[in-house]
């Protein structure tokens, strides 16, 4: 991605080494919340979302993330022993939709009282998360409810990959989606760039892949009659009235106290 200067407020990222990230302010227009950009291409110049997306480190949109994003579901499914012959299904899984979201968390002197991004699972197949070196991404440990939250590593250049709901459903829960949350920080602004990789909404139905159930040994763990295409899934699962997985521990309402990093 080209270097640049938007109204003198920020400088672009030219290097691919992740170091720039630590000194990299997000343009003011992106600081009111989140910006979402659909599609695989970088947004158009001049568009607000484009301006925000230009703040994205090169390699979020660059070959490393997109290669991973486009290949990982297929590889994971293969590990799940999907029938190798089903090329058509594999092609569909390759044809992922990539969406970018930028989270900007203002410094907060009282992080315990603030809401960052509440505990949730992503509806994507996979999510790729890059943070600006300020910790605050937390993952709920699988298993017992009382095991608590684990803070993701924050070394520059660390790319966190989450399994999302779509992959859990397609894989008939060979992979389970990750409950996670984003916290604000007491002393530093947090920025996270998330690329959500989703199955193509017009072609992939969110149901366990038939190949996994073909031999009759395994029962489908997800039933959605009538079988829903992705947009409906997103609608339903985005609803606060219908959490995607009752088996997942619910988000605790209390604010974590150990995350100030002050
Ligand atoms: O900001 C973070 O570290 C996580 C954000 C997140 O999980 C999301 O936007 O879906
Ligand atoms: Fe998320």
TrEMBL record:
It comes from the Eukaryota. SUPFAM superfamilies: Clavaminate synthase-like (SSF51197). Residues 93-199 form the Fe2OG dioxygenase domain. InterPro entries: IPNS-like_FE2OG_OXY, IPNS-like_sf, Iron_ascorbate_oxido_reductase, Oxoglu/Fe-dep_dioxygenase_dom. Keywords: Iron, Metal-binding, Oxidoreductase. PROSITE patterns: FE2OG_OXY (PS51471). Gene3D superfamilies: B-lactam Antibiotic, Isopenicillin N Synthase, Chain. GO terms for molecular function: metal ion binding; oxidoreductase activity. Residues 241-262 are annotated as: Disordered. Pfam families: 2OG-FeII_Oxy (PF03171). The keyword Oxidoreductase applies. Belongs to the iron/ascorbate-dependent oxidoreductase family. This is Fe2OG dioxygenase domain-containing protein. It comes from Lolium multiflorum (Italian ryegrass).
